[in-house]
Amino acid sequence: MNGDGVVDLVAPNRGGGVAVMLGQGDGIFDQPRSAARPGQNGEELGDSVVGDFDADGVLDLAVGFETESTLLVLRGLGDGHLDTADSYVLAAPLETLTMADLNGDGDQDLLAVASDAGVVDVLLGGTGTGFTAAAPVAVGAFPRGLDVADLDGDGSPDFAVANRGSDTVSLRYGDATGRFPAGAELPTRPVPQDVELTDLGGDGVVDLIVGSNDDPLADNGTLAVLRGSGPAQFTEIRSYETLKFINSVTAADFDEDGYLDFVIGTGNNAPLGFGEPAPGYLTVVGGRPGSATQIVVSHVGSSARDVVVADLDGDADLDVVTARGLTYVAIVFDPLG
Q1: C-beta atoms surrounding 237 within 10 Å
Q2: Residues of the chain with CATH 2.40.128
Q3: Residue 284 · residue 295 · CB < 8 Å
Q4: What is the mean pLDDT of the chain?
Q5: In the CATH scheme, what architecture does the domain 198-337 have?
């Protein structure tokens, strides 16, 4: 965020502010600076992405609200501070935000999951001109986690989104203009929360990982690994049960064996809102074929929500960052030791 080549942390919070923590390169971060407070009336900020949206060489921030149908884009100043925001109207409060070049013009575009409306809003970027809304894409009921990849091999970005209310994953195929005219629905285990699209086998075909919370009254989830064999063709090849409800799934090769592993953020409030908040965990599942090793990496407080993987301390090993409940960011260095 300040152009020194060292990884920094940016964390929107439910108090309406954005905290920027500048990294020192050794896993230590400066005290949070309040870079901006776009939620002036106590509105809760939600998911965010960082990118150079105005092509000035400085990173900016796009962030949505959990309680309002608004997306904000805050301009970076190059010193870790963020300036005034442009605002865009969404179909419903934001659930998940993802960045990709959807129409091949070299500018970053945004996919915003508007869960209550059952759609994904599409915002097309233009160099120095802000974003232009394209047609929203209808998906299943109460969508949440979304990922982007080329599912049908035509060179255009497509996306998959987990639908909690309809127990499906919606696949939508892009046409390189920012529209998604075709799609398919895949049935899943109950209450899918997040998806990850990646090539697990190295065969050039995208595979699908789905994190689901099978029983809303229970306290566990399931990670399902589905092998891809073409557009809308996925076959489950293995699954893992997790200790707590699944919030997020991310793939990375933590043990450097050439196979992608999975880090899962788990834990949430008690079922139906009763009782104390459930503890949160980061769990790594080994990705080597035939391996079913599940390692509880860390107990990280009341909930492990969005998970980010990066080398934070410069040792060439991947580390994990997660938003811990409402007020903290938890970091696990080299989770497999």
Answers
A1: 13
A2: 198-337
A3: yes
A4: 84
A5: Beta Barrel (2.40)
